[in-house]
Backbone:
């Protein structure tokens, strides 16, 4: 089981943040064997596809340069022109092969781990210049694994190379008796198929190395329980800090709520434990809205603000509890309380007209009926 520097066991799967941080640093699974396989396969495939045309173009280059007229041998200007023409002919023949190698060099790394460009991985690390750390890496388990991989590659490639040579020995001997053009083309064919067989030997190595690199990358990313706790604290914040933030948010929300109390039409109380502030806009035709609500100390503050702004306070314990528990701030009251609140608002309007000297004093408001599903008894 993997361990960190403190000796704690890394038994937990990595978090998403750990994976993202590792990717930003360029620490992802990569297989050099897969990269080598892709380039070698592309090279051998290019030789087999373009080997004939490449051989013919090279023969044309040789024929052109070995058949220069005698009178032009001493002309320096002609020699420079001939060199440029030869380079152009060879380049035209090699461009398809180079293009395949370029694509393979890009596809190989991207096939495992995806496309990634990290400046952090390019930054110099002075810790690598420490001789003691270098010696420690030389005798680490990873170095031993790399040595075993190198030995395995050597013996596998050697075995395949010997098999290819033994299989092609008759054709190699036959080349010596063939005409020059045919010998060159035949040689290119043998080289191409031999390289393909050698590339196939790398498939075995890559098939072993790719799962190993994925496993090793996952092992490096594993975390201890303490690391997960520390990361949670860093991302989510320490409990005391989070508690302070929540407290500040509650205080801000309460201040906003208290600033809405002067806009209320009526404050319904319990009379001491609960207080709710309601507002009704007759022009919009919508149901009354809850502007503020509170219990105990908050209810006391609501009543104090209501007294300062001369807002009518009505005692209706059942209705106050029902509105408090069933309605959120800035939301309309539920349909089941329409009748009860309508009775309260009607009484409030009659009371306002009485205070303005426009009507008689209304009779005392009776406790409105509250539906059983909205009734909350203390």
Residues:
């Amino acid at each position: 089981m993997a361990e960190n520097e403190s000796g704690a066991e890394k038994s937990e799967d990595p978090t998403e943040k750990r994976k993202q941080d590792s990717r930003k640093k360029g620490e992802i699974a990569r297989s050099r064997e897969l990269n080598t396989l892709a380039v070698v396969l592309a090279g051998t495939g290019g030789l087999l596809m373009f080997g004939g045309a490449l051989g013919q173009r090279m023969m044309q280059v040789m024929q052109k340069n070995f058949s220069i007229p005698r009178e032009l041998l001493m002309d320096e200007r002609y020699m420079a022109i001939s060199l440029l023409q030869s380079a152009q002919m060879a380049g035209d023949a090699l461009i398809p092969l180079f293009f395949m190698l370029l694509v393979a060099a890009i596809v190989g790394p991207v096939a495992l781990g995806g496309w990634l460009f990290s400046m952090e991985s390019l930054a110099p690390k002075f810790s690598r210049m420490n001789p003691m750390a270098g010696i420690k890496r030389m005798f680490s388990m990873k170095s031993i694994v790399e040595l075993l991989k190198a030995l395995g590659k050597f013996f596998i490639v050697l075995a395949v190379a010997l098999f290819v040579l033994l299989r092609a020995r008759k054709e190699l001997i036959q080349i010596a008796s063939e005409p020059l053009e045919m010998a060159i083309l035949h040689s290119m064919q043998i080289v191409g198929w031999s390289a393909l067989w050698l590339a196939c030997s790398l498939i075995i190595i890559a098939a072993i190395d790719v799962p190993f690199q994925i496993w090793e990358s996952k092992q490096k990313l594993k975390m201890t329980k303490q690391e997960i706790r520390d990361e949670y604290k860093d991302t989510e914040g320490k409990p005391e800090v989070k508690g302070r933030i929540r407290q500040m948010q509650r205080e801000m929300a309460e201040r906003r709520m208290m600033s809405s109390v002067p806009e209320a039409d009526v404050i319904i109380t319990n009379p001491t434990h609960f207080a709710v502030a309601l507002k009704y806009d007759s022009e919009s035709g919508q149901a009354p809205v809850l502007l503020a609500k509170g219990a105990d100390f908050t209810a006391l503050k609501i009543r104090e603000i209501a007294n300062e702004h001369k807002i009518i306070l009505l005692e209706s314990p059942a209705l106050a509890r029902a509105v408090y528990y069933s309605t959120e701030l800035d939301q309309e009251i539920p349909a089941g309380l329409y009748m009860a609140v309508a009775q309260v608002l009607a009484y409030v309007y009659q009371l306002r007209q009485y205070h303005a000297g426009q009507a008689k004093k209304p009779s005392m408001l009776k406790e409105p009926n509250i539906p059983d599903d909205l009734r909350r008894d203390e």
Q: What stands out?
A: The first strand starts at residue 266 and ends at 269. Strands lie at 266-269, 274-279, 289-295, 313-315. Residues 180-221 form the longest helix (42 residues). The chain has 13 helices and four strands.
